[in-house]
Design goal:
6% strand; two-stranded antiparallel sheet; 2 strands; single chain; 125 residues; mainly alpha; 4 helices
Amino acid sequence: MPKMIINGKFINLSRISLIIVVLILLIGNVFFWLKYSATQKELLETQKVNENLLDFAKLFITEILKAEGEIDFETRLKFENAVRDLANEEILAQWQKFTGSETEDEVQTEVKNLLELLISKIQIK
């Protein structure tokens, strides 16, 4: 076996090579584990945002679009809180446009814009 003299001692080169390979593999495993963990965390956050958006959209469809007659104060308050819980300024601004609409044409336009915005915010990774 090839040997090398370092500080007056014989060192087996194949043993040094093996140690270097093991260290490289260990560092690689740590790196990929950290990348995997970061990606997993990002995916979980994306999934949570998507679920919140879909829940809001479903609630909007069932309680507002399919409503017979006027929307009561309690339902409006529930939606105001739900839209704020989404923590998205763009959606909040569109919600305010919808709730501030004065004519039926404006309401229809803003409903379409709100639903389109909600769907566009869903992330697919």
